[in-house]
Amino acid sequence: MNHQPTPLTPDVLIIGAGPAGLTAAAELAHRGAGHILVVDREHQAGGIPRHSDHTGYGLRDLRRVMSGPAYARHLVERATTAGAEIRTRTMVTGWADDNTVDVTSPDGRYRIRPKALVLATGARERPRTARRIPGDRPHGVYTTGQLQNLVHLHHQPVGKRAVIVGGELVSWSAAVTLREAGCTPALMISQYPRAESYSAFNTAGRTVLRVPVATRTRVTRVIGKGRCQAVEIEHLDTGKRRTIECDTVVFTGDWIPDHELVRSAGITLDTGTLGPLTDTALRTSRPGTFAVGNLLHPVDTADVAALDGKHVAQQVIDHLHGRPQPTGGVRLLAEAPFRWVAPQILRPNDPAPARGRLLLWTDEFVRFPKVTVRQDGRTVTRRTLAWPAAPGRVFRIPSTVLDGVSDTGGPVHIGLD
């Protein structure tokens, strides 16, 4: 007879040991929230920064700048010092019921039934197959994550000449990694009129890394038998095509949340982000289940994801102390050119979102965006911001634009004039 072992019963289970999950664990443990258990499928905790061997991490959450691996080690140490337990090589495979997850690890299969659960599973780049790029199927085609894992963790060689698809912040990270691996980034291509990253990064990339950027361009075919030999690219305005010789292709950006557990649980998804629908307290539609980090806003910087973890701690503690899950609330909806907004529900008496910011994603570049908030046919707010809205990076707006919203009104539409 097959007997299921007695489930573990931590006070809080955090799924995902990246910046958001580790910061939530440290904050909860430090504040005496009980037994905090973090599980992660990787061999080591730390998330994506663990194999992003360049500087720029920790500015907003730690008020210092460090390399990705150092940042990951710091977050792990802070969580464990506070008293959180971290289990790596531990895969959550599904749900036994609304409050219990099934787990597989080197210790075998077991179940965990926490009093509260925080989903911090992050996001991933869409690979070439998901982007439906035709052509051959040679070796030498990666995402940024695969490239950095190969180079920085496994110290394996890549090719000699690369094409980078995408012009986001992570695209320049890929260029740095390629240089360190002895591979020349021959070209970066972007479908937009300008590379999506910040101007300072674009300028430095062109001058320091010497990477040319082809805008309004897409890959139409990958060429190569065995090893990649070239890519065919097309200018979107003229239709002109040309072939670029390369033995390595890196597909960057184009993020999607790791939402499989959310979907299998039946937790309500937001159609824009494809992550769980949340309110400003980061509650999901399932009572006692919260979500943080780039699972909610694919994708923002690691330090912003970490601050989600800090923000959610009080909300989890309130749940542990018996605060009931509120209902209702006003829906926040993104209007073109915005693709999504996070969080998506505004409720009275809830806290402002993390850092007092709403996060949006735009499909158009607008240098001086005039944000407009409308509800029930009236304009609630119209505010011109000093920073641009640009594709390929999160656009942050003060949550005070919602101050005039009615708690009993209809959906709130956030767009640009």
Description:
- The chain has 3 domains: 12-124 and 256-325, 3-Layer(bba) Sandwich (FAD/NAD(P)-binding domain), CATH 3.50.50; 127-253, FAD/NAD(P)-binding domain (3-Layer(bba) Sandwich); 354-416.
- It has 9 helices and 26 strands.
- The protein has helices at 19-30, 59-62, 68-82, 128-131, 144-153, 169-180, 199-207, 260-265, 302-320; strands at 12-15, 36-39, 85-87, 91-97, 100-105, 108-112, 116-119, 123-125, 141-143, 161-165, 184-189, 213-214, 217-223, 230-235, 241-245, 248-251, 255-257, 289-291, 330-334, 338-342, 345-346, 357-362, 370-375, 378-384, 395-398, 412-416.
- The mean pLDDT is 95.
- The strands form 7 sheets. A 5-stranded parallel sheet has the order 3-2-1-7-18, with helices on one face.
- With 417 residues, it is of the alpha/beta class.
- It is 22% helix and 29% strand.
